[in-house]
């Protein structure tokens, strides 16, 4: 790869994306938005190769698929890759993506909660219905995850599906991702419209921390490779953990900072601010 091309990728990660005005209103109402042509094919190929290398280098889930739990069958999951590789850090710290997150949440700036590679293997199962913020000891709903497929993601690969407007109700907020959450929320969410559509290469989604979402099994024969970053309002506050998962997150991703303080440790850098 030529140095000039790598620099052009770095520049693209910094350049503002022209966010359509209607996208902010859509996100506010529906709890998610899908945006096309956010990142170029060549940029995704370059960083995708690096991310994939590190996912398989750091992955510790090696059990046969038939011995795994529903959660483990859903994907290989590797977090905070930005601390392992400088080029992955450039991708995760993208001001282009962080600015979109800030604008969609209508806040002055965003910090990183953590990044997370989610690789659904060719025989990977469903990702059950869940809301991410069940796991986060954060006081405000001003959180958002960007979901970045590293390849074109057709329906047979299990693209992300959203229960529109479900971030506005409190049903199911005590459920971890599991067979139980899938069964309970499948019946509870019938009142909400389901958006389940493929992703073009370069298309990404942003979804609110309390929006319920799921993904189908990967029946394609190829891995569904996805990189995500979780952003939080720069004025977010740490709240007392409500479950064992939030306790672990507080210790692991928030450096056990004081309850009631801002999550502004070295693990949660400010990625964009006006």
From TrEMBL:
Pfam families: PhyH
SUPFAM superfamilies according to UniProt: Clavaminate synthase-like
Cofactor(s) annotated in UniProt: Fe(2+)
InterPro entries: Phytyl_CoA_dOase-like (IPR008775)
Chain ranges passing through the membrane: none
UniProt KW keywords: Dioxygenase, Oxidoreductase
MF-aspect GO terms: 2-oxoglutarate-dependent dioxygenase activity; iron ion binding
Oxidoreductase found in the keyword field: yes
Domain of life: Bacteria
Keyword flag Oxidoreductase: yes
Protein name: Phytanoyl-CoA dioxygenase
